[in-house]
Please model this.
Amino acid sequence: MASQEDVEFEEAWATYVRLQSDHVLWAKIKARERYENDQRLKLGGARREGEAVGEARKARETAVIMKRKGYAADDIAEMTGLPLSEIERLG
Model:
């Protein structure tokens, strides 16, 4: 007697074979897969970009606080990673 897993596998395999034989439908499925993959990649890139923007904003905020407390610009640059030119422009 076949297990439930065997039955499900056979049904999935039959569906796969049927879909693959329909070339138009198969092309649509593959196009959809490529589209979904592209969307995931775009979201990942956007997330990384957003994180970088947030990190830069936090570095500038920290630099402003350090500058108000009298830290030397060289020390601020070393600790925040910001260039001296940007630290000098901060208020």
